[in-house]
Amino acid sequence: MFFDTYTEELQTTLTNVDRSQIEKLEAYIENARINGKHVFILGNGGSAAAASHWVCDFGKGINIGDSKRLKIFAPSDHTSIFTAYGNDNAYDQTLVEQLKNLLEPGDVVISLSVSGNSGNLVEAHKYAREVGATTICVVGDYNGKLIGLSDLAIVLKSKNYGVVEDIHMVLDHSISQNMKRNIQSVQG
Question: Are the CB atoms for 131 and 103 separated by under 8 Å?
C-alpha cells in the first residue's frame, strides 16, 4: 500500500535529520525573539502555506502572558504587493522587494523549499546576506542554490515534495511547542 511506503520514507527522512541543526534553528529563532529582531519565513506553493502556519504558531502559539513576542512575518501572505512585484518587476523579485522595506541587520530569513532553487527565494537570500541578516533554509535533497546562500542549511534527505513539506511542519510544531514550554517555565 502506498500509504505505508510514503510513511516509511517520511520516518526514515525524519530519523536522518541532524538534531544539532534543529537546535541551531531554534536558537536563531529564540535569539531573534529575545533581541527584538524580525523573522521572515519564505516559501512558494505548499511551502508558502507552511510559512503562514509558522507565523501563526510562532506569532501567537508560543506566547505566555506578557512574554516577549516574536516579530514574525510571511511576505507571501501579502497578496497585493506580492502580485504587484510579480506583475511589474518579475516573479524572482516578489520577496526581495518586500524585504527591502523591512529587513534590518540581525534579522532572520528562513526559506522553506523542496528544490532550494526558487528564484524569488534565492534573490531574497542574496539580499539578506548583503544587509547582514542571518539566512536559513530547510530544503529537499536537490543540492539547491539556497544551501550555499544560507548560514544554516537543513537538507532533508528526500526528493519527495510531500515528505519535505511534512517535515517543514514537523519542525514548526516541535520547535514552537518547545519554545512555548521554555517560555512557560521562565514565566512560572
Answer: yes
Cα 68 from Cα 65, distance rounded (Å): 9
What confidence tens digit (pLDDT) does each residue in 12-61 have?
999 999 999 999 999 999 999 999 999 999 999 999 999 999 999 999 99
If we measure between CA atoms, which residue out of 151, 158, 51 comes closest to residue 98? 51
65 phi-psi bin (left φ>0, alpha ψ -120 to 50, beta other): left
Q: Which three cell numbers stand for residue 108?
A: 532572520
pTM for the predicted model, two decimal places = 0.98
Please name every residue paired with 108 in a beta bridge, in sequence order, or none if there are none: 39, 134
Cell of 52: 503562514
Can you tell me whether residue 109 is helix, strand or coil? strand
